[in-house]
Design a protein that fits this description.
This protein has 309 residues and is of the alpha+beta class. Helices cover 35% and strands 25% of the residues. Helix 1 packs antiparallel against helix 3 and helix 8 packs parallel to helix 9. One of its GO terms (molecular function) is exonuclease activity.
């Protein structure tokens, strides 16, 4: 009976792994939890060894090696920051339809010396409360597309910003801001929020990520994409977005495997990283990343350091 249960666990892991291999496969919400297969497979491998069940051990080991191969790109180090680069700290947060604590958001901006703040699910009410809490003093420049519900987004900054349009065709508005930096060409900062991949919205989710990738390919070298992408490296459409030349600031080193951002309101650590700061290495090199708890929202914020060329 124990062997049968272990074989069932291996079969389930194999099925989920097949979904991950096929970037167009259904059930993206299941695929997001692929990294959680590794500890389970390790336990199966140990149990198979104790039972001297060689075929079971071989199957579990093969799937575990596949997990290691998928994790390897995340822990590969980023290049060293270029000489003369300017430090830039970018923070992004999903503020859960305006429910995040504005004082906590402003405190995080202040405590982490944030230069650029990207918010999604920003409502007009929260935008006003953030300014009342001091955000206008910390980050006076802004390009804001506040909306009721989950559709709002904004970019705030210390240095001048100018509107640079929208990422075309996405379900929620994805404003783009040109960030002026002394002595350097502007950076295009896109505040993005592809729709959540529920069964009824999976097609729209794929379309949002596809349109974002198309925008990234045509936006030039100096690009930062930040927000709740509702996707991880285990999703084919997200890997296609990275394939346009973007890198994830949260990757690089073993810490990349322990920086999940969602769900953050269940009294246990978050499980998956769906909030990202992505940058084209022609524009900047990531220098570190951390997550920050914000009361009132089910996401952790991401704070990323960038060495801007």
């Amino acid at each position: 009976m124990l062997r049968g249960g272990l074989w069932a666990a291996v079969a389930a892991a194999a099925l989920v792994s097949l979904l991950r291999l096929d970037g167009s496969a259904p059930l993206p919400q299941v695929v997001a939890f692929v990294p959680l297969l590794a500890p389970g497979l390790l336990l199966v491998l140990l149990a198979a060894g104790l039972l001297r069940a060689r075929p079971l051990a071989a199957a579990a080991a093969a799937l575990l090696l596949l997990q290691v191969a998928w994790a390897a790109p995340q822990v590969a180090p980023h290049p060293a920051p270029p000489r003369g680069a300017a430090d830039l700290t970018v923070m992004t947060a999903n503020v859960e339809v305006g429910r995040a604590d504005p004082d906590a958001v402003v405190a995080a901006v202040r405590d982490h010396a944030v230069d650029v703040l990207v918010l999604v699910e920003l409502t007009t009410g929260l935008a006003d409360r953030l300014d009342a809490a001091g955000l206008a003093r910390e980050l006076p420049e802004r390009v804001v597309e506040a909306r009721e519900g989950a559709a709002g987004a904004a970019v705030y900054a210390r240095t001048p910003l100018r509107p640079a349009g929208l990422v075309g065709g996405t379900t929620f508005p994805a404003p783009v801001a040109a960030l002026e930096l002394p002595g350097r060409a502007p950076l295009l900062v896109a505040a993005v929020h592809p729709v959540s991949p529920r069964p009824e919205t999976e097609g729209a989710w794929r379309g949002d990520l596809r349109r974002l990738a198309a925008w990234s390919r045509g936006a030039g070298e100096r690009v930062v994409v930040a927000g709740d992408l509702n996707a991880t490296r285990d999703h084919g459409p997200f890997r296609a977005l990275l394939g346009t030349g973007l890198v994830d600031a949260a990757e690089g080193g073993p810490g990349a495997l322990v920086r999940p951002t969602w769900p953050a309101d269940l009294g246990v650590p978050p499980l998956v990283r769906i909030d990202h700061v992505l940058v084209r290495e022609g524009a900047a090199v990531p220098t570190g990343s951390r997550t920050v708890a914000l009361p009132g929202t089910d996401h952790r914020a991401v704070v990323a350091g960038l060495a801007v060329r």
